[in-house]
Every structure is written in C-alpha cells, then in structure tokens.
Amino acid sequence: MKEVHCAICSKKVINDEVAMNLKVLGKQIGIIRCYDCLAAVMNCSTAKLTELSEYYKSSGCNLFKVNYLQ
C-alpha cells in the first residue's frame, strides 16, 4: 500500500480525502490536500467535508469506490 501525503502540511491522507479532492477540485488536479487543508482552501469545516464524503459514498459516487492507495 502506498502512502499519499498532503501537499500543504505533509499529513498522511486517507482514501476518502483523495476522492474528495478529485470530486471538488476535478480529476486533473496536481496536488492532494488533507481534509484540514482542503477545508481551508474551500472556506468550510472539516466536518462538512466528512459529511459530504459520506453523502457521496452512500449515493454511489464512483470516485469513492476506487482504492487510490494501492
């Protein structure tokens, strides 16, 4: 399993954080951010991003079905 780290703070990110970056910033993004740094960029809370992540997973979003950390 490979490790992916936040481009801003170097914190290890989880699969849902990678998927959320792709969902809200587009598939052509060059960097991945953790929920804390992504929340700062999007001017929202990390709780809101977690809530959105659960919503997208439960609604069947394909981005959240892929294992990016293989």
From TrEMBL:
Top-rank taxon of the source lineage equals: Bacteria
- What's this protein's name? Uncharacterized protein
Source organism of the structure: Anaerocolumna aminovalerica
